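Technical note accompanying the year-one report. For the benefit of new consortium partners, we illustrate the data format agreed upon in the data management plan: each record pairs a sequence with a C-alpha cell string. No post-processing was applied to the example shown here.
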Amino acid sequence: MLRNALGKTFRFLGYTVQYGCIAHCAFEYLGGVVVCSGPSMEPTIQNSDIVFSENLSRHFYCIRKGDIVIVKSPNDPKSNICKRVIGLEGDKVCTSNPSDFLKSHSYVPKGHVWLEGDNLRNSTDSRCYGPVPYGLIRGRICFKIWPLNDFGFLRASPNGHRFLDD
C-alpha cells in the first residue's frame, strides 16, 4: 500500500515537472498574455487592457520600427514596460519632448532601440533614460484581447511624425 502511494506521488511529481517545463518554454519562447497598466500608451492601449505578446521576434531579431514591445524596465529590472519602437540601431531619432522649441536629434547606438509611449506628454521612455539595450526586450505585442469591443490588431502610432527617415 505504501509502495503504491509512493509510486502515485512520484508519477504525479514527474508529470508536474514535465508540464511545468513545457509551460515555462511556451511562455518564455512562444508568448503569453499581458495586462498593461498606466497611461503611457494611450490611446492605443488603455490602462488594464489585456494583450497577447509573442516572444519569437526578439529571438530572431525581427523587431521593427512601429512595433509595440514589452521590455524590462531600465529603471527597475523587476518590472516590465510597454512602449513603441521608434528607432533601431543606427537610426536618427528626435530626443526632445514635443513641447521643446529646439529639437535635438541623436543616433541609436549598436545593439539598442529607442522606445517611446504613444502618450508623449505622460510617458517615461527613452527620452528620459536613453536608448534601451535590445536584450531587455521580452516580446512584441501582436493584438489586443480585452476589452472585446477593441479585440484585434493594434493601430498605427499616433506619433508617426516622430519616425525619421534620414
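Partners are asked to follow this layout when depositing records. The first strand starts at residue 31 and ends at 35.
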